[in-house]
Amino acid sequence: MEPRPVRDRMPLWRLLPNLVTVAAICAGLTAIRFAALGQYHLSVVLILVAAVLDAVDGRLARMLRSESEIGAELDSLADFVNFGVAPGLTLYFWSQAEARPLLWAVVLVFAIACVLRLARFNVGARRPREERDDSLFVGVPAPAGATLALAPVFLAAAWPAGPRPVILVEAYLLLVAFLMISRVPTPSTKAMRIRAEHAKYVLVGFVALLALVVSFPWVTLLLLCAVYLGVVAWSAVRRSRRA
Fold first, then answer.
1. Fewer C-beta within 10 Å: the chain N or C terminus?
2. What does pTM read for this prediction?
3. pLDDT tens digit string along 136-149?
4. Could you tell me the domains of the chain?
């Protein structure tokens, strides 16, 4: 009687990065559900949670040395749902634009720009390490683009009595879509380094930022978007001067 073939076994903890990615997908899909129900603030929170999980899963995979091709493809598909589809639909439902089909066209443009941004990132990630520059992103990354796209919702939550001009939302969403597919270099946290003696200041700053987000969430998110747009504009000016 022939012995049974030994099947490959893997420890369960190696699935943790993929489980985090799946959780991010669930957060993005649930954000769409809440946006359709009119609970826009909860939808925004879930998209931001998906962005945090997106930052965690890759680092967790590298730390556990459980990177795989399936994990990379799953992460890319999750990014499209969470940062291409969910923010656009949230803005569409929030704007109450049933009678304005132009906004739907802009939402489609934003989603396609996100797809192109992710495709370009995947192609660049397959290049040899010595041929790519991991210290910068080319264009605004998808998670940052999704957060920027939600700035009108942040503004409305911080200023409930303010106007909601849909045409400005459309123009702003087109601007964010352009930034995602542009060639503007944007900073990457992977390349950021600090001195060991400055670590305590970074920790204190992070706690202060977390306290601001908890105490004044919408104003703080608006300020973070403004600062990030300023960094992108500064990078664009530097690039044009070098060219």
1. N
2. 0.86
3. 778 889 999 999 99
4. 12-242 (1.20.120.1760)
